[in-house]
Amino acid sequence: MFSKILIANRGEIALRIVRACREMGIKSVCVYSEADRGGPWLEIADEAYCIGPPPSAKSYLDISRIMAAAEIADVDAIHPGYGFLSENAHFAEVCQSSGIAFIGPSPEAIRLLGNKASARALATKVGVPLLPGTKDLVENENDAIGIANEIGYPVIVKAAAGGGGRGMRVAHNEIALVNGFLQAKSEAAIAFKDDGVYVEKYLERPRHVEIQLIADQHGSIVYCGERDCSLQRRHQKLVEEAPSPIMTPELRRKMGETASMLAKAAGYTTAGTAEFLVDKKGNFYFMEVNTRIQVEHPVSELVTRTDLIRAQIMAAAGEKLPFTQADVEVRGHAIEVRINAEDVDNNFRPCPGKITDLFIPGGPGVRWDSHIKVGYTIPPNYDSMIGKLLVFADTRERAIARMRRALSEFKIEGVKTTIPLHMKIMHDANFNKGDVDTGYIENVLLAKG
Ligand code: MV4
User: What are the helix (H) ranges across 9-115?
Assistant: First the structure.
């Protein structure tokens, strides 16, 4: 097992990893930018090193500064968390060639699954269900039109190197397709330095259901149920829950086995997520693999009684997973809401600033994953998520009641937060019925005010 891990991240996920390390008897080392000096998680870590100025490009994204800290601290592994360098194959390679374990999949697996076109090709090869569309990249707008005529409108043009909704264009007719094709291509060229795009059938109002995977280096792959992340705004998830309100044991087994099969074919190890869209009839279609631990992983931890960060670290260290598929049973219901320092009424404008008062809910079935405290100043340089509030109960109905109760206790003063929006969602009739889709927040909840 590792004796010391460097955490190339910040905030709540850095703290989550520090906590796992401590329970495992592993020393933790944080790196931080000047904007994060005094961050509460840095005091809890065993060591902390300043690696640069506030801009991510000069700190949390600067591979050479991180590797310099890794060398000085003499760590044997690096945990990238989520975001920043977590899905960067080159960074995984640099770690490998420096003799430091990267706590994530191999560079090859990141490349194969990180590119949506190659992930799609692999999925096709192993029989994973996909929406109808192109097998290869689409060269020009005429080819795109030809494909759309075959599969029928609406279609969606997606950047192969994209993810999380970036570089996508929906088209309901030929004119929109030509425009969308050119826009997606030039947007991808700028954003990802890769203008490859492909076309597939557009599924309207789907649910977003993702399968949590964990795999060791001994051929063991386990799926830890699903998470329903349909409640999003502009591809930013707001609420995640497990199990999905539409799930059945048969569908879970089918989706879990499908995701495991794809991971196996990719030579995947450690933690990852296979993302699917699910239609009203319960048909599921593979979208993409996130080759990292995700923000919402605690939802799965609560319903499967696992520690995914611990399992991830064990897998990266070459140990066997601490549980098998037969051990993993989904029980109860968990909901997570992301608490962001944002002004919801002002187009979700980020609200950095000082937290002047704070009361954190607790009691039965409540978990708070966060790095904040009274007097802490949220810096303006990074994303606005300041914590994740989770509840766990026997049933979905009781979990919602528990979330309403926890939100009612919550007091965060000094900055605006998404707490009032979450309270509204927890009282929303459609959410309570489990009847929402990926467009619900934008088309219905925010539209009706
Ligand atoms: C789609 C889709 C409908 N049809 N693909 C957005 C993020 C990326 N992971 C996949 N995305 C979508 N792909 C087809 N063929 C709709 C979305 C989508 C979406 C997916 C999940 C959660 C929220 C979403 C919001 C808008 C669009």
Answer: 11-24, 40-44, 63-73, 89-97, 107-114
Q: Into how many domains does the chain fold?
A: 3
Give me the residues of the chain with pLDDT under 50, please: none
196 and 266 part of one domain? no
How many Å lie between the centroid of ligand 1 and the Cα of residue 164?
Answer: 8
- Ligand 1: residue of 116, 210, 239, 287 to mutate (most ligand atoms within 8 A of CB) is 287
Tell me the C-alpha distance between 263 and 275, whole Å. Answer: 12
- Has residue 384 been placed in a domain? yes
Domain ranges, residue 170 = 132-201
Residues 266 and 409 in one domain: yes
Ligand 1 site, residue 318, Cβ cutoff 6 A:
no
Residues 6+ apart with CB under 8 A from 63: 85, 90, 91, 94
User: What ligand 1 atom has the least distance to the C-alpha of 131?
Assistant: 15
**Which of 120, 131, 177, 203 has the most ligand 1 atoms within 8 A of CB, as the residue to mutate?**
203
User: Residue 296, class by beta-carbon neighbours within 10 Å (0-12 exposed, 13-18 middle, 19+ buried)?
Assistant: buried
Do 37 and 161 fall within a single domain?
Answer: no
Nearest CA to ligand 1 atom 7: 165
For ligand 1, atom 14, which residue shows the shortest CA distance? 202
Closest C-alpha to 378, from 368, 370, 366 = 370
As a residue count, the chain comes to 449
Cα separation, 219 vs 209, whole angstroms:
25
Q: Is residue 145 lining ligand 1, measured as CB closer than 6 Å?
A: no
Tell the residue nearest (CA) to atom 9 of ligand 1: 164
What dihedral angle (degrees, nearest 10) is formed by the CA atoms of 321, 209, 226, 407? 120
371 and 389 together in one domain: yes
Per residue in 112-167, pLDDT tens?
Answer: 999 988 999 999 999 999 999 988 899 999 999 999 999 999 999 999 888 777 88
